[in-house]
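re: ur question from yesterday

yeah so i grabbed the chain u mentioned. its 441 aa long if i counted rite. heres the sequnce exactly as i have it in my notes:
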Amino acid sequence: MPTNVSLSGLAHDLAQRAESADPVRIGLVGCGEMGTDIAVRTAMMTGVQLVSIVEKSGQKALQALEMAGRIGRTVHTVDALNQEIEQGRTGIVESAETMLQSGLVDVVIDATGVPEVGAKVGLAVIKNGKHLVMMNVEADVTIGSILRTEADKQGVVYTLAAGDEPSSCMELIEFLTAMGHRIICAGKGKNNPLRFDAIPDDYREEARCRNMNPRMLVEFVDGSKTMVEMTAIANATGLIPDCDGMHGPAANLNELASTLIPKRDGGILSDSGRVDFSVGRGVAPGVFVVAAAEHPRIEERLVDLKVGKGPYFTFTRPFHLTSLEAPLSCARAVLYGKSDMAPLKQPVAQASAVAKRHLQVGEILGQIGEIDYRAWTMTMERARQARAFPAGLLQGSRVIKPVAKGEIISAKNTQLLDNSAIVKLWRQQESDVFGSAIEIE
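ran it thru and got these structure tokens back, copy pasting raw so excuse formatting
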């Protein structure tokens, strides 16, 4: 795209890649709402090219490419895909394996939002020596540590995508810690009204009007997405939830620095170094970090600069652009070998699950955002004490003891699907990190 400014930084480096006819070549898995955004966004950028889309419904991919003004064609072999890429077109394939065998794909985005797919595709991307940009946060909070470890072994980048709340919040955390600030609390404003018992049938019309999948909308409304996202921040930083499910106060933007601070200073937190969210006005759709001034001179200057009244200050990013920013993570991974956000090797928190209704013996559980359960953030210590299973493992699992509404879904009442790819990876991760995985008593 033409520009009206002199380019610098990443924009400059991408322009150079374009001039040398060596764009960052992106493969995309999943072409729903987020995938369509990526198709359009990459078509507007210089130095990147969406070269392949994995999508069972090739029609969705064709519609996305038509919207982006690009030419796409369904192909079935690696040679045919390579030919499309070499001609500057986008090859649509049904199998991720076909795309991953192409030497012309540099980096892959998982935009499926399905944990099981994230496990299968994520590991395959890494094993094929390609960088992985994970938009599937549900998979990341479940098996991100082992995917990051495998990526390190292969010499490729594993990163959460820029633009989602976790990565946007991470920008603030890096900015503040680099200046020597201590993080008191990091989090987000919740975008949708919180309703724990939300189910897809109640949101089909709203989802249609917003061009969303009803299940995905419910994942936002019932708090699951917030729990997952705050778990991702915890596991990338070492910050932890202050209590099961976090506090989620109705604090507005001006109240965060007096609310999400330690109790000894008039707040609600037991200590500093926490993750949380707010349902107060003016916070969503942004992210925030509450930090301490640490020194009288710094406090004086922050007050003078209208950041706040002190001694704690709220720093915000008032927007996050979700899928629209994701290609930037692809560019940084390929050009600089840089991850925007990756989990620690030892998780400190878990996106567990609680029942949304009474569950009976023999029931087979569905997906996050449906009718069976919602995600519930816990410290890893608390989760292991409760023998709680991550929400990302539960699709297809079987209830073996009655589970009351609001009760934690755990090894005490539920049996995981043994042949699931994500369950196998999670068990390996648990064994590597903690010595053993949680199993049925």
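noticed a couple things. The first strand starts at residue 24 and ends at 29. also Residues 393 and 423 are 6 Å apart (CA to CA).
anyway ttyl
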